[in-house]
Amino acid sequence: MSGLDILACGAHPDDVELGAGGSLARHAALGYRVGILDLTRGEMANNGTAEERDGEAKHAGEILDVSVRLNLGLPDRGIRLTDEALAKVVAVIRKYRPRVLLVPYSRDTHPDHRAAYVLLEEAKFSAALAKFEGDHPPYRVPVLLQYFINNDERPDVVVPTEGYIERKMAAIRAHRSQFLYEPGRLRTPLNDGSLLRKIVARDRYFGSLIGSESAEGFLWGAPRRTEDLLGLVYKGGS
Ligand SMILES: [Zn+2]
To answer: Ligand 1 center to residue 24 CA distance, Å?
Structure first.
């Protein structure tokens, strides 16, 4: 059984951890099958080599308890909507048949994150087309959610991450070449602590929206269907 409940996709090997690491750990703990797809090996980062980053990504995935972590090996700073790249992503979607697909926020300031959004959203569409050729049968992803990396807006889906904050932060720090400053490394917003402060503050703010200590927010952008309005009432109260 190779199917996944959630497939979280990023441009670089630490994107998913920053925006959705707590949610992934939470859903893995709930018994769902969770996977990560990194589009590139992040070889253009100021610090770290592709080989170092491969090992860090594997370790971070283990901390979050994901079932699979894949890397498409597209060129870093070279994510483009080409026929070849589209076919590669479609093959992953069709093979793993995720029920929820997580993709980077479409308006993030990093152009690679925006390019990843475009490629992934296109792949979701093509994966469902009967006449789009490939080795696996067509598959329609039911839910696509955008997660936030550098930038955000008011989310329309919020997942509490209380109890999973430590694992999220550990998974982020597993990307040592990016987040740990050592002599010989270049100073960056990642290893000077400024990005992490922002992530922690944002997670607290998203938590405040739902009465939780911490949370991760997502954009759905589609009307939510419910057959039972009482299903919207949170079991814990508000
Ligand atoms: Zn990134």
So the answer is: 17
CATH number (domain holding residue 169): 3.40.50.10320
In a domain, 232, yes or no: no
Rounded mean pLDDT of the chain?
96
Task: Note whether residue 235 is domain-resident.
Answer: no
Residue 112 belongs to what domain range? Answer: 6-221
Q: How many domains does the chain have?
A: 1
Tell me the Cα Rg of the chain.
17
Give the global pTM: 0.96
Which structure tokens are listed for 185?
Answer: 């490394």
How far does residue 228's CA lie from ligand 1's centre (Å)?
39
Bridge partners, 218 (sequence order):
147, 157
Å from CA of 10 to ligand 1 middle: 7
Distance 2 CA to ligand 1 centre (A): 27
Residue 1 lies in a domain: no
Mean pLDDT, rounded, for 40-62: 97
pLDDT in tens, 95-123: 999 999 999 999 999 999 999 999 999 99
Q: Which residue has the tokens 């006449």?
A: 131
